Amino acid sequence: MATWRRGREMLMDSIRSNDPELLPFITALSADSVHRVARTVVYAVANPGTVPQALMHNLKYNAVLHERNLILTVVFHEVPWIAFEERVQVTPLVSGFWRVQLNYGFKNTPDIPKALALCKEKGLPINLFETSYFLSREIIVPTRGSGMAHWREALFAVMSRNSGSVAGFFKLPNNCVVELGTRVQI
Questions:
Q1: Which range marks the domain in which residue 49 is found?
Q2: 19-29: average pLDDT
Q3: What is the pLDDT of residues 172-181, one digit of tens each?
Q4: pTM of the model
Q5: Which of 116, 111, 115 is nearest to 168 (CA)?
Q6: What span, in angstroms and rounded, lies between the C-alpha atoms of 21 and 41?
């Protein structure tokens, strides 16, 4: 457990140190003439203040931006239940971008598509049949140096590779999930 916890801390620090701030990045994108696709895309992120890795990879390799981009963060609270009325928070950012926070209690079962349907009440109707979920997937590359002992980094890489699926945990439809990976040295 100590290896998993320390490995996750190192991974998140490595990712955060390289990610640009979200607002300046998407403000520049809205002024740019990037080709837009008529769909909704959900980028799941742990840190809503930085640009999702999957968004950067989508722009870099596919050179496309969707018409409706949701920066999604799921927060688990230390209460058993969060009511549906309090489940969703929607914040418009710039043209074509929204920050969506989904709140769950520790006894709630997370279901992202079901929760996104609640966005309609907040002024953001989402057609779930025209929605894709872009997830970032990190491949851990153990390196020698500061951090953990090399054997612990290798153990964390194996644990990370064998960890459960985020898509399955959040009940994302299998045919709508796109995982974009990156190799991260820790």
A1: 2-185
A2: 89
A3: 999 999 988 7
A4: 0.85
A5: 111
A6: 19
